[in-house]
Amino acid sequence: MSQIVIVTDSTAYLPTTYCEEHQVHVAPLSVIFEGEAYREGFDISVADFYERIRTGSLPTTSQPNIGDLVATFEQLPEGTDIIGITLSSGISGTYQALHTINMMIDHVNVHPIDSRISCMPQAFLVQEAVRLRDAGATAETIVHHLEELKERIRAYFVVDDLEHLQRGGRLSVAQAFVGSFLKIKPVLHFVDGKIVPFEKIRTFKRAVNRIEEMMQEDIEGDGTGYTIGVIHAEDSTKAEQEIASLQTKFPNAQIEMSVFGPVIGTHLGPGAIGITWYKK
């Protein structure tokens, strides 16, 4: 059986220790402040990033360096299968970059997988790929399973400040102004790989409660067999409070915490929270 290498980008926000232990190669995306690029996970911490945007700095983002990926892949043995799990192609060119690399390098087989999302749901896919690889599954089996799994993952987000959605072109200036005046906190989700509003709800707490309502409609019983993720934007206290709430509703679910790092934080801003879940 050929060697299987698992690659993802930094927006999965997996712990470095996990990636090192399980031989997951991470391609960093960057945030750019005033013309200077910072690779998330390498050159800028989550705390430093949010401190900078709270002071008014507005970054842009860029995809991984294709040249670095090509150099890494060229060193792999003949016939290696590369499972490349990327953030949504609707907000980044990383997925297409893997297709381009696959045409550039002949001696390895690149299998690009568009997560159609990012952050913890993307990490779920990586973790499943690791589990299957370690169990001896073929690349084709892993790809098929991940394509099926990503259709079962649910994820919703709430932002605390509409300014970042407006700056990113997802809300007009007028919509952001009216929404802020009325204390609208849109519940967001991914549709066709892009971040779009799901419902417009007044107050942050009500928006989070709405997500919990949808979870209770979708999750069976006490949560047995489900994995739930709570994602925060450098506000672990808010995330821990949400986890405590979810533990009372789904006591047998596996509940984990992660962060919106710099690249995704650029789109959502400080104070955002996300909740994601799927049945194993």
UniProtKB/TrEMBL annotation:
- Does the UniProt entry include the keyword Iron? no
Spell out the protein name for this chain: DegV domain-containing protein
- Per the record, the domain of life is Bacteria
Q: Which UniProt keywords apply?
A: Lipid-binding
| Pfam (any one) | DegV
Q: Which GO terms describe its molecular function?
A: lipid binding
Parts forming coiled coils? none
Q: Which organism is it from?
A: Exiguobacterium indicum
Can the keyword 4Fe-4S be found in this entry's annotation?
no
